[in-house]
Amino acid sequence: MDPGYWLDRWARNEISFHQREANSHLTYFWHELGLPSDASVFVPLAGKSRDMLWLRSHGHPVLGVELSNLAVEAFFREAGLLATNTRQGVFERSEAQGLVVLNGDFFALRAEDITGVRAIYDRGALVAFSATERPRYVAQMADLLPAGSKTLLIVVEYDQSQVDGPPFAVSEAEVRQLYGATHDIRVLHEEDVLTSSLKFRAASMPWILEKVYLLTRLS
């Protein structure tokens, strides 16, 4: 993933990936993780996702990491929250009312930066990486996460020879290849979301699937 690409997207406000409301798969399937309401949740490549607010409203302390300072500032501003800003190692740490966002490079994270995390919500992180970059992302997550931690993973599948990402296509076979050695994998849901995707309709794509997985970190 080219950091400059994403920083430019935020600078130009080209953020079609941002959803104005909490993701429907999150709100419907989160209970499948079976977490206590006070379990801490990690959101990689968080952007200014309102999903973090939904998680916090359900009792979870939330920790996000985001490369763009514009996204971090917008998240707290649009939520009507005044964040306290401090340094945490190489990161700028913004915090308010149980919400923490670390501004910096995901790959600079250490296990101690996410101590206490019990679950991960990944709607836009894995699909932001190209096929050659995804193994590095998954390896980093495996190094960070404790045994027993749960991940709600949302990806898309489509014919990438017709339209390129991001979001990049991630097949079930690849999910199992990437996570099979470190996680138990359960498919929760899949649906064709072509009607709600302007980018893929404009390219005359016949279909695009959204797929929801529950991943459990093995010991």
- CA(first)-CA(last) distance: 29 Å
Strand residue content: 25-35%
Name the poorly predicted regions: none
Number of helices: 7
* Order of strands in the sheet with most strands: 3-4-5-2-1-6-7-9-8
Tell me which oligomeric state these chains represent.
Answer: single chain
Structural class: alpha/beta
Q: What's the SSE pattern?
A: HHEHEHEEEEHEHEHE
Walk me through the structure.
- The chain is an alpha/beta fold and 219 residues long.
- It has helices at residues 3-11, 24-29, 51-57, 69-78, 134-144, 172-179, 198-202; strands at residues 40-44, 62-66, 84-88, 91-96, 99-103, 117-122, 150-157, 183-192, 209-217.
- Strands 3-4-5-2-1-6-7-9-8 form a 9-stranded mixed β-sheet, with helices on both faces.
- A hairpin with a 2-residue loop joins β4 and β5 (99-103).
- The radius of gyration is 17 Å and the shape is globular.
- The model has no long low-confidence stretch (mean pLDDT 91).
Gist?
This protein is of the alpha/beta class and 219 residues long. Helices cover 26% and strands 27% of the residues. The two termini are 29 Å apart.
What labels would you give this structure?
9-stranded mixed sheet; 27% strand; alpha/beta; 219 residues; 9 strands; 26% helix
What's the structural blueprint in terms of helices and strands?
Elements (H helix, E strand, L loop, with lengths): L2 H9 L12 H6 L10 E5 L6 H7 L4 E5 L2 H10 L5 E5 L2 E6 L2 E5 L13 E6 L11 H11 L5 E8 L14 H8 L3 E10 L5 H5 L6 E9 L2
Parallel strand pairs: 1-2, 1-6, 2-5, 6-7
Antiparallel strand pairs: 3-4, 4-5, 7-9, 8-9
